[in-house]
Design goal:
- With 342 residues, this protein is of the alpha+beta class.
- The protein has one domain (29-339): 3-Layer(aba) Sandwich (Beta-lactamase).
- It is built from ten helices and eleven strands.
- It has helices at 29-37, 83-96, 123-127, 146-152, 159-164, 180-194, 199-210, 238-249, 264-268, 328-339, and strands spanning 50-58, 61-67, 219-220, 234-235, 253-254, 257-258, 281-282, 287-288, 296-300, 304-309, 314-321.
- The longest helix has 15 residues, at 180-194.
- The radius of gyration is 19 Å and the shape is globular.
Length: 342
């Protein structure tokens, strides 16, 4: 398939490695104000839950920034599953280094026994959520939930081992199923490839991804085994989440320096075949289509979003606390906000 072109940084607009260049949104301001008012101020809709932060980047410039009461630009915000997209970036860096091959069998010790059918699972299948591994992704405490058990129960000290110990529920490669466990297996594969765990892997994250693009606030969390909990935990400021979005919008290049290997962003946004009943398209650790055709996004529990919209040269970050039963409402709100720029 043909993917929409990724726009380059406009001439004369400095990269936000230190400070964001500011500009005015080129939109119908009355319409944009009306949509923004749904999330902030006295007319805020309870249907969105609490919107803590909103950052909009257009053509490389900060054109809109709002915070809820008690929140601000210096604060750090939950990533939840937006961390999966950070993990995808780290894997890309290691692929560029020649230390990982996504089409080879994943380096997972739990699958090394002769005849274990899981031993054929590739890193590509893990990244695309088609590993076939059993995993119940449910955040309701009254329901059976592998993700809650992994993050907060008996799996929390070694999240990758917990996930890798799961049996196959389907043949690898043929059945799409969203799984935070899958991403933690990927994160450990990245650590093994880098030869770095705990503080050493965090130093790798900062030296190769965060520092080059000016992300100064990230606070990644690690389990007791020294593995970055790449499914769920990397707190950041809203502006730093926007920096990650801009890196992907610019095809993995930042101020003339290639951070992600050639084609890695296209890999992230190439659709993965799914079941007809699945509601939203998926690429490789990035969701597709949230803000119109060709858009792709990092998404997290409770309504965390980095929406990347190539045809509008736009990045939208929303952080908040939205109850599970209202989770579709922030998606629709972001789509309306982006439509103001069309």
């Amino acid at each position: 398939m043909t993917l929409p072109a990724l726009p380059s940084q406009p001439a004369g607009v400095p990269w936000p490695t230190v400070n964001w260049p500011e500009g005015a949104p080129r939109v119908d301001l009355a319409r944009l104000s009306a949509v923004t008012a749904e999330a902030f101020g006295p007319a805020a809709s309870p249907d969105l839950g609490v919107t803590e932060a909103l950052v909009v980047i257009q053509a490389g410039e900060l054109v809109l920034e709002r915070y809820g009461e008690g929140f601000g630009p210096e604060g750090t915000y939950k990533s939840w599953s937006m961390a999966k997209s950070i993990t995808q970036a780290l894997v890309g860096i290691l692929v560029g280094d020649g230390r990982l091959d996504i089409h080879a069998a994943a380096d997972v010790p739990e699958w090394s026994a002769p005849g274990d059918p899981r031993g054929a699972i590739t890193l590509d299948q893990l990244l695309r959520m088609v590993s076939g591994l059993a995993f119940v992704e449910d955040y309701r405490p009254d329901q059976a939930s592998d993700v809650i058990e992994m993050l907060f129960g008996r799996g929390e000290t070694d999240v990758a081992h917990f996930a890798a110990d799961m049996p196959l529920a389907h043949e690898p490669g043929g059945f799409w199923a969203y799984s935070s466990g899958t991403t933690n297996i990927i994160s450990r594969c990245a650590a093994r490839a880098a030869g770095a765990f705990g503080p050493d892997f965090e130093a790798f994250m900062r030296a190769r991804l965060f520092d080059p693009i000016g992300m100064t606030t990230p606070a990644p969390r690690f389990d007791a085994a020294g593995v970055f909990i790449g499914s769920s935990f990397c707190f950041c400021s809203a502006r730093d989440f926007a920096r990650l979005g801009l890196l992907y919008l610019r095809g993995g290049v930042w101020d003339g320096r290639r951070i992600l290997p050639e084609g890695w962003v296209d890999y992230a946004r190439t659709p993965t075949p799914r079941q007809p009943t699945d509601e939203q398209a998926y690429g490789a650790q990035w969701w597709l289509g949230l803000a119109g055709p060709g858009s792709f996004s990092a998404q997290g529990y409770e309504g965390q979003y980095i929406a990347v919209v190539p045809d509008l040269d736009l990045v939208v970050v929303r952080n908040g606390s939205t109850p599970l039963e209202l989770k579709e409402n922030p998606k629709a709100w972001i789509a309306r906000l982006v439509d103001c720029f069309r």
